[in-house]
Amino acid sequence: MQKLHRLLYVVWLLTLPVMAEDESLSVEELKNLGLSSLMDLTIETASGTEETLIDAPATMVVVTKQDIQQRGYSNIVEALQDLPGFDVTVQNGTMYVSSYQRGYRTPFTTRTLFMINGVVDNTLWAHSAVFSRQYPMSNVERIEVLYGPASAVYGPNAFLGVVNIITDDGSELEVGEITGNVTGTIGSFNSKSVDATLKGKIAEDLSFSISAQQFTSDEPNFSNRYGYLDNALYGSDQIWGAIHNIQHEGEFLDHYYDPTKDYGVLADLTYNGLKLGLIHWKVKEAYGPYYAADRAQNNTFWNKDSNQYYAEYKTDLTDSLSSQSLVLYRENRRYGYWAEAEPDGDASFISFTNWNAETSSWLFKQAFEYEFTEDLLLLVGLKYERKELTKGYDIPGYWLPAISSSTEVGSGIGHSTDLTYDIPPPPNAMPDFNITNTRDIGGYLQAIWDWDYWRFNLGVRYDRNSMYGSVVNPRIAAIYHYSDDWTFKALYGKAFQEPSPLHLWGGWSGRAANPDLQPEKVQNLELIAMYHTDSLWQELSLYRSHYTDVIKEEAENAGERDIWGLEYRAKLSFAHFVDEFDDITAYFNYSYTHPESSMFYAHDLGVWLDGDANLGDIAPHKINLGINVPFGDWNVNLRGNYVSSRELYLRNPLRGQGEKLGSYFTLNTAISYQYEPLTVTFKVLNLLDKNYFHPGAESANAGNDFSQRSTGYINSIIPQAERSYWLQIKLGF
User: Fold this and answer.
1) What's the Cα-to-Cα distance from 672 to each of 81, 133, 669, rounded to whole Å?
2) Integer distance in angstroms from the first to the last C-alpha of the chain?
3) Are strands 112-116 and 161-167 parallel, antiparallel or unpaired?
4) Which strand (E) or helix (H) includes residue 6?
5) How many of the other CB atoms lie within 10 Å of CB of 634?
6) Which of 83, 463, 470, 732 could form a cystine bridge with 677, CB 3.0-4.6 A?
7) Is 340 exposed, middle or buried (0-12, 13-18, 19+ CB in 10 A)?
């Protein structure tokens, strides 16, 4: 609590210059303050149409291009960590991070809809948003973050909110103008990246943009930071036997090694309203600290691929009627080697198998906007999607009853006492019996009505899936512009999260499956107050969400969750203490979250029981704050994140022992120098070199009794990176 008081005191000091500001500012000074432009900032995510931030029927946070540059963000994860209402856990394993929005803890980031220019990028098979280092940031105009359910517009899986990356398509350039930039980064852990953008306007109606990023790293070495990551376990012949004769990336599987090779490409070509687009990325990341070293070797790549090809056409049919059409084909693949040691007394059954899951879909969407009157806008949309889904991983040689396309099931299971181990062959073409097809249809109607100082947004959506049936989701919003400074919003909405193939068919022999799973559902009620002047922007949100048919790890619809919380966001701007420099800006976010589950895990019995309990892994108090100070060609940015102590997840063995995860405060800084066309940025993450942990993923069941074998595969807590240094050099042209 003392740390919290200190942080609040710092924020109070930051706001003093604003509160003492003389009201007789010149027009030029007001322009320099810049915060008033937030009132007129145009966004797309809240309603699926362009509107200002204060008219959006949702809590919204926008990370601007200027924020990205000043803070030195080189990937989307760094941006997420500075957002209010997000519990971001860096697991550095099969998923690099899991981000729990507004207190809803899940095994992966599956309840937040992730989009790039309005195109959904969550994977088809697990519904996960793969937030890592593959997305290029060099062409990002802004990141729009919506809080709360949005199924009335987007249908399935816009459950907790939406993150939408908006890029520059080059259409605002002058005819014949071609611009670009290249950013090279080197950093700790032998990390390297190149991020580049090229965009241009060839003719009045013809423009293009392409951006790409490649990132490689050895990642932090945690072998000396946690007992179940010790090299003595990775290198134990008693546990691993002949698996130690296998190499990956030139390293034997007998010690901690966590390589990463990620890349991504975003491209589009726009001609007279028609856009042809590509979203392609590949994540190749080892298992890091995710799994216990006596159960899994961490030095093998787990891969995720995504390819999306789309054509989008926007046109005005009449002065009051516009149309937007989208045809999209996408394919995802998850695959990689998995080295496993299943305990057999003091020895192990060992295996080194190659896993594969492939999915694809065709999507058609049609939307119309009709300006019925000057004050009434009607929006209607239709969707049809056909998916071809893998049921379970194809795993040649794995335990019964695994699916195998190329060799006898179980042939790859050896023993640590064997002198040799034969690696089973990789998968062949996916067997037909392991593929299923589903169909989704949906439609929505939305009305936006402006009346005097009021704005009303009413919407309803119907979705039907060939497996789990139909769902109806409404949204109602009333927005009142009390004055030039004050705006109030009242929101009610429902949403649903469809069960993923991972839960429907289990994925593999060790995971429960249930083809009869029904969608999760949520009802959300929210009140928002916004206060905005030329030098201060404040926003307060109060919300309560009720979740039903919650899908647990055992692939059951069981229990309910109630989450209520408060989020306060402030941005401020004040005159620099040196007159000739641009204004100093700062921000402060505070989040309070209380997540309650109607079921708890009885560790002594090993079963779930009815009864209210804190869900766990969600910090009740979180603070994000930062300040940006320009000095002519120089810029200094300092930002910090405070996370309070928290209960661990209900299933985590450490929760059964009464242990909590301690609070921490991290500080990051970015110092940049700009001399056109060159920008050099020096960035330090975890400036205070804080030693801290994040909670484990999924069931987090490994425990912490390092005197014996772990009690499960997934580490209960995960160490975080020490202080790291990064140098970015950006060249524009």
Assistant:
1) 21, 21, 10
2) 50
3) parallel
4) helix 2-19
5) 12
6) 732
7) buried
- DSSP assignments along 108-150, one per residue: SS-SEEEEETTEE-S-TTT-----SS-S--TTEEEEEEEES--
* Residue labelled with tokens 């300040």: 627
* pLDDT tens per residue, range 443-464: 999 999 999 999 999 999 999 9
Nearest residue to 428 via CA among 359, 358, 345: 358
Contacts 24+ apart (CB under 8 A), 543-546: 543/59, 543/102, 543/147, 543/148, 543/567, 545/102, 545/104, 545/148, 545/149, 546/522
pLDDT tens for each residue of 682-731: 999 999 999 999 999 999 999 999 999 999 999 999 999 999 999 999 99
Residue type, 108: F
- What are 292's two structure tokens? 């216990």
Residue 531 sits at φ, ψ, to 5 deg, of: -130, 125
Residue closest to 125 by CA, chosen among 309, 392, 339:
392
Q: Which of 685, 681, 605 is nearest to 639 (CA)?
A: 685
Q: Tokens for 11, please give them.
A: 């924020």
Dihedral sign computed on CA atoms, order 12, 16, 17, 19: positive
CB 150 within 8 A of CB 495: yes
- Count of helix runs (H) and strand runs (E) in the chain: 9, 39
Residue holding tokens 């309203």?
Answer: 273
* Cα–Cα dist 556/710, whole Å: 26
CA angle 448, 449, 452 (to 5 degrees): 145
Q: What is the pLDDT of residue 29?
A: 37
- Position 35 scores a pLDDT of 63
- Torsion-angle region of 611 (φ positive above 0: left; ψ -120 to 50: alpha; else: beta): left
* CA–CA separation, 719 and 588 (whole Å): 27
Q: Does residue 16 register a pLDDT over 60?
A: no
**Could you tell me which of 597, 601, 513, 588 has the C-alpha nearest to residue 550?**
597
Report which residue type is found at 261. Answer: K
Q: Kindly report whether the peptide bond that precedes residue 677 is cis, defined as omega within 30 degrees of 0.
A: yes
What 232-239 contacts at long range (C-beta under 8 Å, 24+ apart), as own/partner pairs, is 233/292, 233/293, 233/294, 234/293, 234/297, 234/298, 236/294, 237/416, 238/346, 238/347, 238/348, 238/416, 239/294, 239/341, 239/347, 239/348, 239/416
